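The records we work with from here on pair a chain with its fold. The integers have meaning only within a learned vocabulary of local backbone shapes. A complete example follows; check for yourself that the lines match position by position.

:::
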Amino acid sequence: MSLHNVVNRNTHRARISQPMDAVDEILRQWTRERPDLDASPMGIIGRISRIERRVDPLLTSVFRRLGLDRWSFDVLAALRRSGYPYELTPTQLFSSLMLTSGAITYRIDELVKAELVQRAPDPNDRRGVKIKLTKLGLVKINEAVAAHVENEAKILEHLSPKERSRLTSLLRRLLSGLEEASLPQHRGGSGRREEPS
């Protein structure tokens, strides 16, 4: 059986079990125009991209209502989930948030101005500082994270608990594979992860 027939048969099965979407139409067109290609990866990556574009405004609207934006929420949330006394070094923060040191410095400056975080001396490093939630920052992030979780639950409400669990597992495998592929290797090709300095 040709690839074209296999794709058409699978598309027909999908049409019976669930409604078609814009990505299905894109795949149908590529199957017609380039039957020699297996365009099915577009179905996954294309949907992930479209989901991200639709989800981002939904998240941002909740943050704005609370006087935050996505990056300030991320910084405050990283401090809050670190546990009492809700403080991290700048290095721990930018490692947690996958940001450069310059980017995190700017974000911290803005949050200090808003009195949501403060810089405090690091008792373990005379030249170092720690970034700590203020009382106002703790109140703000506690309110924000509750609203954020409620918002995310609403976004996912059309998926059953079993579907969420399966999706979580698949996304974890995809992300883990991508992160593993991007890790630098030790000389000699041992394949071991390089520990952060």
